[in-house]
UniProtKB/TrEMBL annotation:
Signal peptide interval: none
Annotated transmembrane regions: 12-32, 53-72, 78-97, 142-160, 166-183, 190-209, 283-304, 316-345, 357-376
Native organism taxonomy: Bacteria, Bacillati, Bacillota, Bacilli, Bacillales
EC number: 2.4.99.28
Protein name: Probable peptidoglycan glycosyltransferase FtsW
Amino acid sequence: MLKKVLKSYDYSLIIVVILLSLFGLVMVYSASMVTAMQRYGFESDHFFIRQKIFLLVGLVVFLFFAIVPYKLYLNNKVLIPIVLISLILLIGVLKFGTIAGNARSWFDFGPIRLQPSEFVKVAVIVYLAAVYAKKQQYINQFNTGVLPPLVFIILVSFLIALQPDYGTIAIILLISGTIIISSGMNFKSILKLGALGGVMSIPLVLFLSDKIFSATRLDRFKVLVDPFAEGVADDSGYHLVNSFYAIGGGGVEGLGLGQGIQKLGYLPEPHTDFIMAVISEELGVFGVGFVLISLSYIVLKGLFIGLKGKDPFGSLLAIGIASMIGIQTFINLAGISGIFPLMGIPLPFVSYGGSSLLQLSIAMGILVNVSMFVNYEAKYKSKVNMEGPTVPPNKKSEFKA
C-alpha cells in the first residue's frame, strides 16, 4: 500500500517547485545584497539567509500537507476553524498589526513578520472548494448554493481593504471567480452572483473611496500612459522606468549573475516586486524563460490535475491553487512591464518573502496530495476494475450469477 502511494506522487511537479525555489534563493541574494547594506544597514547576505530559513521551514510544511489527505478539509470540524481563524487573523492585524508600505498587513514577532492575508488566499480556496463540492445537488439554488460563499468573499475583501491591500483583494476575487466558474454552476446563477456581488461591493467602495481613489493610486494608472513623460519619469514613473531599463538592459544573454545595475539603488524593491526585472537584466532571455516555463508548468499541471480528478472537491482545490499561482504571476509581470499598475505582488517561489513562501508551501502540499490521490485511483483502482475482484477458491460460488 505504502509503495503504491509513493509511486503515485507527481515527482516532476515537486522537482520543478524545488528548482524554481532554489533559483529564487540565488536571485534573492543577487538582487538584495546591495539593498541590504545601503538601505537597511544589514549584512549583504541578510535576506538570503532569511529566505533560506523560510525555504527549510517551507519544506517541512510542504511535506506535512503533502501527506495529510486533502479530504480531511471537507470535515466541518476542520473547515469551520480554518474559516474562523482566517477572519480572526484579518481582524487582529487591523488592531495589532505593523504598518509597512502604507498598509497594516503584518504581524511583527521580532525577527519574524507574517502577513495573514497571504494564508487567507489558501483558506478561501479550501472553503469555496468544500462548499461547492458539498452543494453540487443544489448549487444553483440562490439561498443555499449561491449566497453563503458570496458573503464570506465580501467579508474577507472588506477586512483586507481596511489594511488596505487591494492587490490581494484582486487576487482573491479572481481566484473566487475561477472556482465559481469551474464549480458546475450554470451561467444564469453566475450572472446573478456577479450582479449581486457588484451591488454588495458599492457600499464598500463608497466607504473606502478616499483610499481607493487616492492621488497616489490614481497616479499609478496615469503612469501607464507614458512613464517617460517629462515630470513623470523622475516622480511617479520612476520605478516603472527603471524596471524597463533593467528588462531591456540584459538583452539575450544578460549582463551576468550579480552584475546588474538597476538593483544598485534604482529599483525600489529589487528582491521582491521587481525580482523578474533583475533576472532579465542579469540572466537575459534564458533566466526569464526558465522562470516562465517553470511557473507555466506548475499552473498547467494544476489545471490538468483538476480536470483529471473525479472528486469535485479535489478538482476545485487543484484549479483554485493553479489559478492563484497563475494570477499572481500575471499581476506581478504585468506590473513591472507597465501593463497593469504596480500592486506590490511578489513573484511566486522567486521573490523574497516568508509569508508568501509558507503559503505556497501549504498550497503546493495540498496540490501534490490531490495529485497523488488522482494518480492512485487512475493507476490502481482502474486496474482492479479491469481485472475484476480477486476471489479465494472457497468463495467462488458467492460470485456466480
